[in-house]
Design brief:
The complex is a heterotrimer of chains A (about 425), B (about 300) and C (about 200).
Chain A: E1 2-7, E2 14-21, E3 24-31, H1 38-42, H2 50-53, H3 62-79, H4 88-119, H5 130-148, E4 157-158, E5 161-162, H6 168-190, H7 194-199, H8 212-222, E6 234-237, E7 247-250, E8 253-255, E9 262-266, E10 277-281, H9 290-296, H10 300-309, H11 313-336, E11 356-364, E12 367-376, E13 379-386, H12 388-392, H13 403-408, H14 413-422, H15 427-430
Antiparallel strand pairs in A: 1-2, 2-3, 4-5, 6-7, 7-8, 9-10, 11-12, 12-13
Chain B: E1 10-15, H1 21-27, H2 32-36, E2 40-43, H3 53-56, E3 65-69, E4 77-78, E5 81-82, H4 83-93, E6 96-100, H5 102-106, E7 123-124, E8 127-128, E9 139-142, H6 149-160, H7 174-177, H8 188-192, E10 258-259, E11 262-263, H9 272-284, H10 297-300
Chain C: H1 6-24, H2 31-38, H3 42-48, H4 52-76, H5 81-98, H6 100-111, H7 128-143, H8 152-171, H9 183-194
Helix pairs in contact in C: 1-2, 1-6, 4-5, 4-6, 4-7, 5-6, 5-9, 6-8, 8-9
The chains are: A alpha+beta (about 425), B alpha/beta (about 300), C mainly alpha (about 200).
Chain lengths: ~425, ~300, ~200
């Protein structure tokens, strides 16, 4: 018998159709019931209009969409024979604001999703402080807004760089806010300094601190999440940033990737039409997001976690928490590297001279975000978006399940739904 | 009609076709905890609430304040129940209905996805004709893409304090929408003297003449109530896109529509003759102080 | 005898000055010359215009306002852009025929002797009422889809340069026919040059 559960609080909704076998998940399909048609909306518009439209695909990761759009347009410029240079200053600013969006995302997921969900289990009592998470996230977005003007829905990245021309006032303000965020995390979330946390190499290190993170870690253990939620153990990272290493990995062995081998196919959802398409690489499913990125960067703690607990739900959840701190350190480093003497935006030929295709790939909070653009004299002929949730939460068949499907198989329903949420689902992104 | 504040008013946050931008913007509110303390949150797409989505869509409760985020599409479903059933049910007994965001106010970004049936709660772009038009007096439009959290907080606080909210002819609170996004922009002096910025990426120069800035035509308080308490689009060199107005979304952003080099749209309420006379005069004078960069980092650092 | 108002007095000075500048030239004409023509003392003259420079500037403002007012009337008519061009050309040529001293002042003093005006008439300030109406004409023409969208100065130069050139030839007595005879062909040329292209 197939039962349907509607999951909300995942930046929208999704329906899970469970086939149970003696109270264990035998198979589950995922349906995203909504569809907006934004790729179609972009047709016929000027390329620069995409900078305003694509952030509205998603409220929590719109900034990643902005960056994917600008990269796609700049790629089209290059392919039309008019490469645009982007100064180091602009690149650093872009990377910094992108990182801050990822941090706010993970912080919200920790306090608004993970902790409340853990608390739903019997015998788990964690202190519920969702507004603390929202506050911490607002510190990150405030820092972001110093450079980008506002969050959500900034459009400060344009072909050639950024619109923003900060003085030392903005840069010093930015530093101060990052330090405030850092202090907040240390005091309220980690229970230790950022540096100390990043020096952890073993799960045992968590025993030495007493904080929200250590409580979460303990709870995951108590729920035996280190023995549940195993998936394909294949990962992929596609966005080029200073905090990433583009690669696919089988467990922790890295291999090269070729972006042209990414493709999409219709979801397998016999019970109800799902508008989300599955994303695959060379016809196989890969997991994306913080765990993938940290593995590709060879982060010791995560590798050790993986050695003991593979791609269990424990590893997956802890990786997301860890990445928050990892990227905070990256932000603190990046802000020092912004060279104020450089130009914010380099000029190029007018858009009407651009007739070409372009691809922009960015690591959004949940994994690679791909924007493909086809321009004719600066007007969009075709636009395609592939979001990270399409990788993780594809809906495949029993013989070939997606990362999330595989992770849920063999678990009881409550565990399965918990595992589902640990992938940090973004429904709106996937129903563009 | 005022809220009964002897018990906490019940707040229900519903969504239509949305990106969640307004929900996330709301979470940035500095005094979020204090504000939420004053309400019973029946449902919210991100925060924990009294009821689950399932319970809310079973249409058995009522709320005092209904907040609706997103474009209204009667066929769009939440928990498989279409909005054409959910919305009227809650709107009927709510004391106040807040259309949160341009999508809920006028149709906004997602109106064009199904132009015949999609709309805001009261307006389809500029025409009256949304599903709640019969309840117009109870509907407050807070347009914006997204809405600044302080705009929502101000509105809710005013309702709690039983202050009358005076609205403009688009049902937007005059407190928040009678000034323009242009007021308070750090580039105002450049606007005065018609010193246009060249290209993008400079803090000097006005963005109105060439870069498509809609701030002198847009009702919003973005340069007085700063975004994330620190900044705004125009302060960081991004032209205002006019997102609080029914005409949003527009096309051809980042450039000013000109006819023979003359802006097609001039500041709100200013006649074209007046604007051109003043602009022509201002452009004649070269104020040396306003030409060039204020701080030459290349030279001095 | 009806009392002459200050305004009428002022306009009298303006007409006299324009006539004299046209006959004798700007530099040769003196304040006493003008005062005498109007029938007032030099002292009284200075009550109206405190210097020749001020007078020069007031004259150009006067002419610009005159042209501007006529252009505005044409702009506000509910006629086609092509018809508006005809009316503008007609108005300009009529002024050149009936009040040659005004156009002559504009061409031979304002445009040719900028040093007369100093910084008070920098840029287009002193002809702003006239230029603003031309801007309105062009902007509306493009907005309606009648005129080709191009740089303002390209279009302005074509229109005004053409008319100014014709009036100059007329002033030099080089045109075989009266100005009016050229209105139709000139209007058509201007329209064809500026109209919308596919």
């Amino acid at each position: 018998m197939i039962t349907k559960e509607i999951i909300d609080h995942i930046e929208g909704e999704a329906s899970l159709y469970f086939e149970m076998q003696e109270k264990r998940v035998d198979f589950v399909t995922v349906v995203f019931p909504h569809f907006r048609g934004m790729e179609n909306m972009l047709k016929g518009k000027s390329a620069l209009d995409a900078l305003v439209i694509t952030p509205r695909v998603c409220g929590i990761c719109g900034h990643a969409h902005l960056m994917a759009t600008v990269r796609a347009i700049e790629d089209a410029y290059k392919n039309s024979g008019h490469p645009i240079e982007v100064s180091n200053k602009a690149q650093n600013m872009r990377e910094l604001t992108l990182t801050l969006e990822i941090i706010q995302n993970h912080l919200k997921w920790l306090y608004l999703v993970l902790i409340p969900q853990l608390n739903n289990f019997e015998n788990i009592t964690l202190s519920l402080t969702p507004l603390k998470g929202a506050y911490g996230a607002s510190l990150a977005t405030k820092a972001l807004a110093i450079l980008a003007g506002q969050w959500p829905h900034s459009s400060y990245m344009i072909p050639g760089g950024v619109t923003s021309d900060p003085t030392y006032i903005e840069l010093m303000q930015l530093r101060a806010h990052l330090e405030k965020l850092s202090d907040f995390l240390e005091k309220e979330t980690l229970g230790t300094t950022v540096q100390n946390f990043l020096s952890f190499e073993s799960c045992k290190n968590f025993n030495k601190i007493a904080s929200d993170v250590s409580s979460v870690e303990q709870a995951l253990f108590d729920l035996r999440m280190h023995k549940k939620g195993f998936s394909h153990d294949d990962f992929i990272v596609l966005g080029e940033h200073r905090f990433t290493q583009i690669a696919k990995s089988r467990a922790t062995r890295l291999y090269n990737v070729d972006i042209t081998k990414v493709h999409v196919e219709d979801a397998f959802s016999p019970q109800e039409k799902s508008y989300a398409k599955n994303a695959l690489y060379k016809n196989a499913f890969y997991e994306t997001g913080p765990l993938a990125r940290l593995i590709s960067k060879d982060v010791k703690l995560i590798k050790n976690m993986h050695r003991r607990y593979k791609d269990s739900n424990y590893t997956r959840a802890m990786a997301r928490i860890y990445e928050m701190v990892y990227l905070l350190q990256h932000s603190l480093d990046l802000v020092k590297e912004i060279d104020i003497t450089q130009d914010s935006c380099t000029k190029s030929v007018t858009l009407s001279k651009v007739t070409a295709q372009g691809i922009g790939v960015v690591e959004a909070p949940r994994g690679p975000l791909i924007h493909k653009i086809k321009l004719k004299e600066g007007i969009i002929e075709r636009y395609e978006i592939i979001t990270p949730t399409q990788w993780n939460i594809s809906s495949g068949t029993k013989l070939k399940p997606s990362p999330a499907q595989k992770a849920m198989i063999g678990l009881n329903k409550q565990d399965a739904e918990f595992v589902f949420r640990t992938f940090d689902v973004c429904s709106v992104c996937t129903t563009h | 009609m005022h809220l009964n504040t002897e018990t906490k008013p019940k707040l229900l946050w519903l969504q239509g076709v949305t990106c969640n931008g307004n929900s996330h913007s709301f979470l940035n509110l500095e005094s979020l905890e204090q504000l939420l303390d004053k309400f019973e949150l029946l449902y919210h797409p991100l925060l924990a609430s009294t009821f689950s989505l399932s319970e809310i869509t079973s249409l058995q409760n009522s709320c005092d304040i209904l907040i609706f985020e997103g474009t209204y599409d009667p066929e769009f479903t939440r928990n498989n129940i279409p909005l054409k059933e959910i919305l009227p049910y809650y709107a009927l007994h709510a004391e106040y209905i807040i259309a949160l965001g341009t999508c809920a106010s006028f149709g906004g970004m997602f109106q064009s996805l199904a132009p015949e049936r999609n709309s805001g709660l009261l307006y389809k772009v500029e025409e009256e004709g949304g599903p709640l038009i019969a309840y117009k007096k109870r509907v407050i439009n807070l347009s914006g893409c997204p809405v600044h959290p302080e705009w929502l907080a101000t509105t809710l606080q005013m309702l709690l304090a039983k202050h009358t909210i005076v609205v403009d002819d688009l049902q937007r609170p005059r407190e928040l929408y009678s000034s323009l996004a242009h007021h308070g922009c750090t580039r105002n002096e450049y606007f005065e003297w018609k010193v246009d910025t060249k290209g993008f990426g400079l803090k000097e120069g006005c963005l109105f003449y060439e870069q498509g800035c809609r701030a002198p035509l847009t009702h919003a308080s973005c340069n007085t109530i700063l975004w994330n308490e620190v900044s705004s689009k125009t302060r960081v060199g991004t032209p205002c896109f006019g997102c609080t107005e029914p005409s949003f979304p527009r096309t051809n952003y980042f450039q000013t529509k000109t006819n023979m080099s003359i802006p097609q749209d001039v500041p709100l309420g200013v006649s074209k003759r007046a604007y051109l006379t003043v602009a022509g005069m201002a452009k004649t004078f070269h104020i040396k102080r306003l030409e060039g960069v204020l701080i030459d980092y290349k030279r001095d650092h | 005898m009806a009392k002459i108002t200050k305004e009428e007095r002022k306009n009298g000075i303006i007409s006299a000055a324009l006539a004299l500048f046209s006959q004798k030239g700007f530099y040769v004409t003196t304040i006493p010359d003008i005062a005498q023509k109007v029938g007032m003392s030099v002292g009284n003259f200075y009550n109206y215009f405190s210097s020749k420079e001020i007078l020069a500037k007031e004259l150009i403002l006067y002419i610009s306002d005159y042209l501007g007012k006529n252009l505005r009337e044409i702009n506000m008519k509910e006629i086609t852009t092509e018809e508006k061009i005809q009316e503008i050309v007609s108005m300009y040529f009529k002024m050149a025929s009936d009040k040659p001293e005004m156009i002559e002042y504009f061409l031979r003093v304002y445009l040719s002797n900028r040093e007369v005006f100093g910084s008070d008439c920098a840029g287009m300030i002193c002809v702003s009422s006239f230029v603003t109406e031309m801007m309105i004409f062009f902007e509306e023409g493009v907005a309606k889809g009648d005129l080709h969208n191009q740089d303002f100065f390209s279009a302005f130069g074509l229109f005004m340069g053409y008319l100014g050139g014709m009036v100059f030839l007329f002033g030099e007595a080089l045109l075989p026919e009266p100005l009016k005879e050229y209105e139709e062909s000139i209007s058509l040329n201007i329209y064809n040059a500026l109209k919308h292209r596919d």
